[in-house]
Structures are given as C-alpha cells and as structure tokens.
Design brief:
Strands 20, 22, 23, 24, 25, 27 and 28 form a seven-stranded mixed sheet that branches. A six-stranded mixed sheet has the order 10-18-17-12-15-14, with no helix packed on it. Strands 31, 33, 34, 36, 37 and 38 form a six-stranded antiparallel sheet that branches. It contains four helices and 38 strands. β14 and β15 form a beta hairpin. With 675 residues, the protein is mainly β.
Length: 675
C-alpha cells in the first residue's frame, strides 16, 4: 500500500533531522519494549492519536530569520516616517522651504487720479514689491482694462490688456513704471483696472499669480449730449427735437454711434443729421420705437446735430420721455449699430396740453426754456399754429410782443405780418397773411415769423442780466354746437437770455517774462528754457460765479511754483498735471470801459526732447474757463425749481506753444526746437 501524504511528510522530516548536525546528537535509540498483546481502544470518531512533538524541533531556521527581518523592517519604516515628518516640518518652518514665494508677500500698488476725463489719456503708476525670500522668475505684469478703453497712440485700437515682461524680481526687489490708456465712460461711471503679476519660482514649472485692482470715476465724458425742443406741446401737433452731440476729448473719438428711443404715442416723420453723408441716414427699428446713427469719428471739439421730427399724441397732462445715448463699439468694423460702451446719455420730457389753437415758438430753430443768444446775433423767430378744434376758427389774429430791453426797430423784418414800432409788437391777421388766417379749418396748421438783431455788448453794458421775452397771444372765433359765437384765446411765450460775452486768452512770454527767463531761445533739446504764461479774462453783461480756469501741462513741462499776483488763487496738481486758477466771481464789465481785466501769470520750465527737434511743442493745453452764468442759471431754476446748477465750460483758449507771437521782441524763427 502506498503511504499517505501525511506519512511521507513525517518520514521526510525525520530524514532531515537525522542528517542535521544540530539535531542528530539528540536522536538516540528508544528503549525496547516487551512484546505483548496491546489492546487499542477505538473511539467513535475514529480520531488518530497524535504523539507529543514538543521536544522535537522540525521548523527550518530560515523562517525565524525572515520573521525577525520583517520586525526590523517595520521598526525602521516607523523611524523613517518620524524623521521625515520632523525634517519637513523644520524645512518649511525654519529652513529653505520657508522661502517659498507667496502671493501675500507680493505688493502691487496702483496710483493715479481719483477722477479722470473720458477721452483724455490717463497715466497710472504701477509699483511691484517682492517681499518674499526667494526671487520671482519669468515675471510678467498683465494689465486688464475695462470695455471701451483705447490706446493713447492709436485711438482706433481697442485696448483690452497689456502684458509687460519684468524678468526676474530679486528677493526684496521693486519694479515700477507707468501705463497710459484712454478710458471711455459716461460722467459718474466707474472704471476698473485689474493688474496681475504672473511668475514662477526656482525648481517649479507652475505659474503663480498675484493681483490688485484700481477703480476710478469719470469726472466728464468724452462726448456730451444737449437736447433742445419745446418741453410742452399739444396732442397731435408736430414736434421737433434737436440733439447736439459734441466731443469734449482732446483727441479724436472713433466710431461714434447715436441712438434715440421714442416714447409711446410718438410717430416719427423724419430724422437726419447736419451731414449729407451716407452715415447721416438713420436705421429705424421695425416697431419705429428707436432709431440709430453711425456718426463716425469726432475730432476734438467737433459737433454734430441730429434733428428729429414727428407727431406726439396723448391725453392732456401726460408726459412723454425721450431717451438719447451716444457711445462706441468694441469692433469698429462690425455691422451692428448696438452701443457697447455708453459715453454720454440724456433724456428729454415733453408735456402734452390741449388748446383751441396750438402755438409753439422756436428761436433759431430751437425751442425750450433755455434759449441763449449772443450780443449782435441775428435772431429768427418762428410761430407754429394749429387748429385743435373739430370746428373751423374764423378771424384768427396772432400778436407777438417783445419786452425786456430795447430792440432796434429797423432790424425787425417780417414777410407775412406787420411790425408796430410804437409798442414793439408784430401782428398777423387775415389782411397781412393774404387771407390765410381768415378761416382755419379743423386740424389746419401754418407758420408765421419775423427776424431781428440783438444789440451789441457796448449797448448793453449798463443793463444787468439782460433778458428778452416774446409773448404770443392768439384770438379767434368759432360757432358753438348751440349756434352761439364764441371768442377764443390762446397764449404762448418764449424767453431769450443773452449770454455774457466772455473773453479768455493765454499768452506765452520769454522776453517780457515778469519772473525773468532762463535758458536758450530757440529752445534746445535737453536744456530747460523757462517761460511765463499770462491768462487774461474779460466779461460783459452777466455775473459769472464759481469761475475757474483749468489747463493741463504736458509731461515735458515743469511747474516752477511761482505765480503773480499773489492775491490770485493758483494751484497745481502734481498727480494729473492740472493747473487751476480759481477766479471765484467775475463781475459784469470786467475789462471794459477802462476797467482792468482779471489776469494771472505763472512760471513754467520746458525741457525739450530730441524727438521734438524741428517742432513747436505745446507748453499748455486744454485751456478752458468753467463757471456758471448767473442769468442762465436763474432761467434754469425757474424752469426746474429743483435743478442743481453746476459749473460748465463757458470759454476756451488756444493751446500755448513755443511759438509765442505777441511777446515783444519774439520772432517765429525762435519757436522750433533745435539740436
């Protein structure tokens, strides 16, 4: 019988023990037992009895060594882990690892004017400080600008972002510089500039980022919208609104779009600009509730006028609001006329009234409460009338009376009326109009008018705040439903304010410099030449309040810090290079009839660059007089009692260049920069 596997294993273990040097001495002959009958008990589970092997060593020695090695390996791993934790804790807290570049240890400072003028180049000062203990490698400064920002060197290019390489910024190092851009936005809007520093650290390919932001407010818009028209009309009567779009920027404003939104009840009849180009044609929406124009590029100071005509219907007492906006697109080549960046906006409210004979007055094609003309202007007055009744009006008479200050009767002319000089009235009736006013059919409309010339400033110098009123009275007859004749009356009025004739000049001086000039003339590149600039202001009829002269110095011109006379208040803002002469109030008649004008002189230093050789650089630019014409302000308060009157631009002066003609002894040959 073949032995079982268990028996084979026991035999093999015995054989190994017999030939083992360490176990063979322990093997000895067993004591012989006496042969006899042995009774073995067989249990019910047939279990095979096991012998006592406690004294026999049969496991190989290699197994013990393996177990001991595993224990040593486990212990070593635990010790290694503890050492690693301690090492890295020390490394990152106190050792070299504590020198990692953290964005919180990087300072990005952005400084610039708190308020900016839309459309005017603005400089921002950027300072980056690395407070980490390791250098920043491959550092790039990324400046992200708001929508509508343009490059100061190319106003046709939209400036979305700039990437400025800084290289390696050493530990504790500083980098600083300036960026310039032309921001666009409506007055009061906010602009956000985001600056990010992208960098790497030694031994790592990862890109880290530190960032900062800068917010500024727009003090003025590069564009302005002025809406004029009759603020009150009769339902169904033609209405005309004119919107003047003007550039306030010192550089061209590219790709200007204009949009008008009409109120409910308005039916557009015509709309056009004062240009005959293809861009002057509007694009009208399908529901005729809006129209848009591509006005193109605006040069500094350029003005375009949009005229909108239509019919406005509604109930008596209703008010209709027109909304106007101007702006630009990000992509000037796009076919869409949607404004993406609003540069100026305005609204105009028209009230609807009811009268038997609708009367509306326009002066020079404009209407509204704030009509302002200048001394000596030829003024044309048009009176539109319309029968609002369902019945005819007979024997209509229209009378216009001039009051306020004397008008030269010889300058009053009318083609279809009669001027009565003894009481300064113009009359239109059926005899002067060739029978046109004899019978006015229901819904009939027409126009009468006259012209006159405003007095010159010298004729008004003794009149304080001169104003002219035109009062219109209309009368007629109709037969009532009961057959009884009725007399009808209607009135309208228009006030004309006379703008004060201000004068602002700025003259550069070298030979007549009250502070004494230093430096070569003609100016030499790299060498400073000092000049004086004298401002002169005169005024005629109206008092000007909150007046100030504002100008800007180019970066190559230095504010010396002296001015004359000391009684005047002249300040200079180093942050935006703005010069301000605060005049306060300018009384009427200043500079006239022997009264001395208001004057102030400042000293500047001009250091030309080699890039300006052969040129006549500007010494002072953007010169304007800002203030409040008290007469115009009074008219505005009457029209709108809650209105807040703010100073506006009243006069501008030419930029002062190195060609200072008018300085005694100066020749234009000394105006250009030499090498």
């Amino acid at each position: 019988m073949e032995p079982s596997e268990h028996e084979k294993e026991k035999i093999e273990r015995l054989r190994r023990a017999m030939y083992s040097r360490s176990l063979s001495p322990k093997i000895h002959e067993r004591e012989r037992r006496v042969l006899g009958q042995e009774i073995s008990s067989v249990e019910e589970d047939f279990a095979e009895p096991q012998g006592d092997d406690s004294g026999v060593i049969v496991a190989p020695r290699a197994i013990g060594f393996a177990r001991a090695g595993l224990w040593w390996l486990l212990g070593g791993a635990i010790v290694f882990f503890i050492c690693a934790v301690g090492f890295f804790s020390y490394y990152f807290l106190f050792g070299g690892g504590s020198f990692g570049a953290s964005p919180s240890n990087i300072s990005i400072s952005i400084s610039g004017p708190p308020q900016i003028e839309g459309g005017v180049p603005t400089e921002l000062q950027l300072v980056v400080v690395n407070r980490n203990k390791v250098p920043l490698e491959l550092a790039d400064l990324v400046v992200s600008y708001p929508s509508g920002t343009r490059s100061p060197t190319d106003f046709a290019t939209d400036l979305q972002s700039q990437r400025i390489p800084l290289g390696v910024i050493e530990a504790g190092g500083t980098r600083q510089g300036t960026v310039s851009a032309v921001f666009a936005g409506d007055e009061g809007d906010q602009a956000n500039v985001k600056v990010e520093l992208e960098y790497r650290i030694g031994g790592s390919s990862a890109i880290f980022v530190a960032s900062s932001e800068y917010n500024v407010a727009f003090s003025s818009s590069p564009l302005s919208l002025v809406v004029s028209g009759n603020s009150e009309t009769i339902s169904g009567q033609p209405i005309e609104l004119t919107v003047s779009v003007a550039s306030n920027a010192n550089a061209p404003v590219r790709d200007v779009l204009f949009e008008a939104e009409f109120p409910f009840g308005f039916k557009l009849e015509s709309a056009a600009t004062n240009e005959s180009s293809a861009n002057a044609k509007p694009q009208i929406s399908q529901d005729s509730r809006s129209a848009s124009w591509k006005l193109g590029d605006f040069s500094p100071g350029q003005n375009r006028v949009v005229t909108i005509r239509g019919l406005l219907t509604g109930e008596q007492g209703d008010a209709r609001v027109f909304h106007f906006s101007a702006g630009s697109r990000t992509d000037a080549t796009a076919t869409s006329t949607a404004i993406e960046t609003t540069l100026a906006s305005n609204s105009f409210t028209v009230a609807i009234s009811k009268a038997f004979l609708g009367l509306s007055v326009s002066v020079g094609g404009a209407s509204g409460p704030n009509i302002v003309v200048s001394p000596g202007d030829n003024v044309s007055v048009a009176i539109d009338w319309q029968n609002n009744l369902p019945t005819a009006i007979t024997d209509a008479v229209i009378v216009a009376k001039l009051s306020g200050f004397p008008i030269d009767g010889a300058t009053v002319h009318t083609a279809d009326g009669f001027y009565r000089s003894n009481d300064d009235v113009v009359i239109w009736d059926k005899t002067t109009s060739g029978g046109a006013l004899a019978t006015l059919a229901p819904g009939a409309r027409g126009k009468v008018g006259f012209t006159f010339r405003m007095p010159q400033s010298d004729d008004l110098k003794n009149i304080l705040n001169p104003r002219l009123s035109i009062s219109i009275n209309a009368a007629g007859k109709r037969t009532s439903e009961s057959g009884v004749p009725q007399n009808l009356q209607a009135t309208a009025s228009q006030k004309i304010s006379l703008a004060s004739d201000l004068s602002l000049t700025a003259q550069g001086l070298y030979y007549s410099n009250p502070f004494g000039s230093v430096g070569p003339l003609p100016p030499k590149a790299g060498t400073e030449t000092t000049y004086a600039i004298v401002f002169t202001v005169t005024n005629t009829t109206n008092k000007i309040s909150d007046a100030r002269v504002v100008a800007h110095m180019p970066p190559y011109v230095r504010w010396v810090g002296i001015y004359s006379p000391p009684s005047e208040r002249v300040t200079f803002n180093q942050n935006d290079s703005t010069l301000t002469w605060d005049l306060g109030e300018i009384e009427p008649g200043v500079g006239l009839s022997g009264t001395p004008p208001r004057q102030a002189a400042i000293a500047i230093g001009f250091t030309p660059s080699t890039s300006q050789i052969g040129q006549e650089p500007q010494l002072l630019q953007g010169i304007k007089l800002i203030g409040i014409d008290t007469l115009k302000a009074e008219e505005q308060r009457k029209a709108n009692p809650g209105a807040i009157i703010v100073p506006t631009e009243l006069k501008t002066a030419k930029n002062v260049t190195t060609n200072i003609l008018g300085d005694p002894g100066f020749s234009s040959a000394n105006s250009t920069v030499i090498k």
